[in-house]
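Postdoc handover notes: sequence design on the structure in folder B. Input tokens:
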């Protein structure tokens, strides 16, 4: 079955860390199904260079001259690389600073290679801080500061593809109004240093119900959808998407957003060759039916690299 699926690589694979690949390492990636090109399978350098090289397809058409094309796709009104850079494990070098020179190098390479599609979230941050309920917005700040440190803005003019930033709103018990969504969106815009967020995503369904054991449950999914519509119609975001939604919620969400003339651009889910039988493939099928782009995270099913 043919479908459009964007692979959001975890930074365990892509970030500028000590992870190395040998010159003969073969690393698979998820090309656009319609590209019909021959992929290079041998890469050198650090792990993120695998990603950057993989975005460019080189082939000859009846001549000895090779032509290189960027592998891109569309999410809503955005043109993005078919593979993006996940930021879930991005953090500063220590607990007191957000600076990370290695991440700055990664960002500079991504921008110069037209591969600057960054997927972040207000809830991402270092494991230590996250475990303590701290660090909200830290990774958004790191991304903004790192872009600034290497002299790049979201309006960077020296690349064919401008940097694209996607971030996420986290459902929480204390966020129970449309305005709480708008407020969170404004805070993310400020941390990212942008006038409009390229893709604003609902991180998950409203499953955090701390009082459920006491018989108290208040589902706020529809409130959040209406809040996202408000962000879109106020011009705070260019596109809206969801994450970890199954077929039923997708349909309900799209119907609710349509009442406010807001298109649902994407659904980000875990997807891999060995993880298609846990409902993921059915979700992809539903997305295709509804015209919603699929962003697939953990395309290697969290396997380790050796």
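Designed sequence:
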């Amino acid at each position: 079955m043919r479908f459009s699926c964007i692979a959001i690589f975890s930074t365990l694979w892509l970030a500028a860390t000590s992870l190395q690949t040998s010159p003969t390492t073969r690393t698979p990636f998820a090309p656009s199904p319609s590209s019909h090109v021959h992929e290079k399978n041998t890469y050198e350098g650090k792990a993120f260079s695998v990603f950057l090289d993989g975005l460019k397809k080189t082939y000859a058409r009846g001549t000895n001259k090779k032509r290189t094309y960027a592998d891109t796709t569309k999410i809503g009104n955005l043109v993005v690389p078919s593979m993006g850079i996940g930021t879930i494990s991005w953090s500063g070098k220590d607990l007191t600073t957000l600076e990370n020179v290695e991440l700055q190098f990664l960002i500079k390479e991504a921008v110069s290679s037209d591969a600057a599609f960054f997927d972040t979230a207000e809830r991402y941050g270092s494991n230590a801080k996250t475990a303590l309920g701290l660090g909200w917005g830290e990774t958004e700040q790191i991304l903004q500061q790192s872009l600034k440190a290497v002299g790049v803005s979201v309006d960077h003019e020296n690349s064919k593809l401008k940097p694209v930033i996607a971030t996420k709103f986290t459902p929480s018990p204390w966020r129970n109004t449309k305005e709480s969504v708008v407020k969170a969106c404004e805070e993310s815009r400020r941390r990212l240093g942008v006038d409009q967020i390229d893709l604003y995503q609902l991180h998950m369904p409203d499953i955090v119900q701390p009082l459920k054991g006491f018989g108290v449950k208040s589902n706020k999914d529809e409130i959040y959808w209406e809040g996202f519509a408000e962000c879109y119609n106020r011009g705070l975001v260019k596109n809206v998407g969801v994450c970890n939604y199954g077929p039923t919620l997708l349909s309900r969400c799209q119907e609710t957003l349509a009442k406010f003339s807001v298109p649902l651009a994407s659904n980000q889910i875990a997807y891999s060759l060995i993880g298609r039988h846990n409902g993921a493939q059915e979700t992809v099928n539903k997305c295709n039916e509804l015209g919603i782009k699929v962003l697939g995270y953990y395309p290697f099913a969290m396997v380790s690299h050796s």
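Context for whoever picks this up: The longest strand covers residues 264-270. Don't rerun without checking with the PI first.
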